[in-house]
Every structure is written in structure tokens, then in C-alpha cells.
Write a structure and sequence with these properties.
Blueprint (H helix, E strand, L loop, with lengths): L2 H20 L9 H16 L4 E8 L4 E9 L20 E8 L2 E13 L2 E11 L5 E8 L2 H5 L2 H4 L4 H4 L1 H5 L5 E2 L7 E4 L2 E8 L1 H11 L10 E7 L2 E14 L2 E13 L16
Antiparallel strand pairs: 1-2, 1-12, 2-3, 3-4, 4-5, 5-6, 7-9, 8-9, 9-10, 10-11, 11-12
């Protein structure tokens, strides 16, 4: 490469880097001090959302579990939620599924249902036996708006419940010596890796009477998108034998703020 070509090439690379920096796409540009201000605000923004779809996966030593919850409503072409004349979310629906050791254990749907006596709002629930067969079908006449504000939903399936520990966690509880690329700030996405202190694990157990999801973990990777919580993956060390070990994913939570369409069965169907 001639000297003139080298200068042109170098100038092009410099220009690209400047453009990326100006557009907010520079990588590894976030500091711990910036994260201290950003983290609680991003969690708060997530908790203020009315619509969400989350998926939680647990890979414990003695079991696996998988849960999803989708709170759905109509949106317009500008991705704004549509409200009815009472100010409630239009065509609101809820879809919940729980799985344990790769078998369904619980399913719930709530929303407007059609039948021979017209449209009615119902909560449909069913459990599953050890063989994975649906049993114990039941229905309750309730609006999805009332259901998502009920204690049974709020205590287990709301974003407040699923993000409870990450709202309690602070940046001061984190250790940032996992690797050399801790924080990536690319466009509207912030991603970082950390471990938690032993003091945090003790504090959490004393506060809530249960172990933290970080118990026994090696490190975690958390991601925020558009100033809201997006995901966390927690890893532990797994021994493979012969002195070999690997990082094992023991917990994963993913959240988006508009999930798939929910279809509500007819209340005339006894086994929906």
C-alpha cells in the first residue's frame, strides 16, 4: 500500500469512528459512575410499563423451570396503546404458562371470550398432572384489567414481582472485575458484566427470607434497551471432569414490552 493510499485509508477509518461516536454507537464507553445514575432509572422505567412479555428460565442443580407472562393490548401505528372510553387498555389480554422439568404445570388466559350468550371477560385456568395432561379446568368471570391488579397476579407474574430482586440490587452491590470488556454502550443498548458481593447475598436473604438468584453464581451479564431492563443471564461454574470446567447458565430473564397476539378460547368449551 502506498503512503498516499495508507493516509486515505486511515482517514476513512477515523471518519467512521467519529460517526459512530457521534451517533451514540461507540462501544465500552460506559463507566461505573454513569451506571450508578442510569441503573435505578432504567429499572423504574421498566416497572412503569403497562404491557410486557417476560420469559424466565431456571437451570438449578435439581430441576429446570420455564415461565412466561404476556400482558397484551391493542396499539396504533405509532406503537401507542389504544384506550377505550373508560381509559382502559383496549382489547387487553393475559397469557401465562409455567413449565417444570420440561412438563407444563399451569396455564392461564384472561380476556374477552365469545360464546352463545355473547362476549364476556373470563379468566381460564388449568393445571397439569405428572404425565403432562391438562386437569382441573376452571373459569372465573373477571376483566383482564381487574386480574392484573389482583394479588394472585401481582405477587407472582407482574413486572414488580419478576424484577423484585433487580430493583433491590444496586450498583454498589456489584463487582466489576470479571473481564476487560465490562460495559458496552451501543446505540440504545447498554450491556455489562458483574458479580455480586457476599455481603449482598447475606443482606438479601436476611431481608426476604430466601436465597438470591445470584446464590452460587460466578457472574452475570445484564442488558438494558431504550432505557429499560431487557435481560439478565446468570452463570455458575460447572465441573465437567478431568479438571475441566465451564460456565453454565443457571438463570435467564428476558423482557420485551409488546408480546405476541393472545387468543382467548370460548367459554362454551369446557376443556379449552
Amino acid at each position: 500500500m502506498t503512503k498516499k493510499r495508507f493516509i486515505r485509508f486511515g482517514s476513512l477509518i477515523l471518519a467512521i469512528l467519529l460517526i459512530l461516536s457521534a451517533s451514540g454507537c461507540a462501544l465500552n464507553s460506559y463507566s461505573v459512575e454513569e451506571l450508578k445514575a442510569f441503573y435505578p432509572k432504567a429499572i423504574e422505567n421498566a416497572l412503569n410499563e403497562e404491557l410486557y412479555y417476560w420469559k424466565e428460565t431456571v437451570n438449578a442443580s435439581d430441576h429446570t423451570s420455564w415461565k412466561t407472562c404476556n400482558v397484551f393490548a391493542e396499539i396504533d401505528k405509532k406503537y401507542e396503546v389504544i384506550r377505550d372510553e373508560n381509559g382502559e387498555l383496549a382489547n387487553m389480554k393475559v397469557d401465562i404458562l409455567e413449565e417444570y422439568n420440561k412438563k407444563n404445570v399451569y396455564k392461564a388466559l384472561c380476556g374477552k371470550s365469545s360464546g352463545k350468550n355473547g362476549d364476556k371477560n373470563y379468566l381460564f385456568e388449568k393445571d397439569f398432572d405428572d404425565a403432562g395432561n391438562a386437569v382441573n379446568y376452571r373459569t372465573s368471570e373477571i376483566t383482564p384489567q381487574a386480574y392484573v391488579h389482583s394479588d394472585s397476579f401481582q405477587n407472582k407474574y407482574s413486572l414488580n414481582a419478576i424484577l423484585k430482586e433487580f430493583e433491590y440490587l444496586t450498583v454498589e452491590d456489584m463487582i466489576f472485575d470479571i473481564d476487560n470488556d465490562l460495559m458496552e454502550h451501543k446505540g440504545k443498548t447498554v450491556k455489562f458484566s458483574f458479580a455480586v458481593t457476599d455481603e449482598y447475598l447475606e443482606k438479601y436473604k436476611a431481608e426476604f427470607g430466601e436465597s438470591s438468584v445470584f446464590e452460587g453464581s460466578k457472574y452475570a451479564t445484564m442488558e438494558f434497551a431504550y432505557d429499560r431492563f431487557a435481560s439478565i443471564v446468570i452463570y455458575a461454574t460447572e465441573k465437567l471432569g478431568g479438571g475441566v470446567s465451564a460456565d453454565k447458565e443457571i438463570y435467564k430473564l428476558e423482557v420485551v414490552y409488546y408480546g405476541p397476539i393472545v387468543n382467548i378460547p370460548s367459554y362454551d368449551n369446557p376443556e379449552w
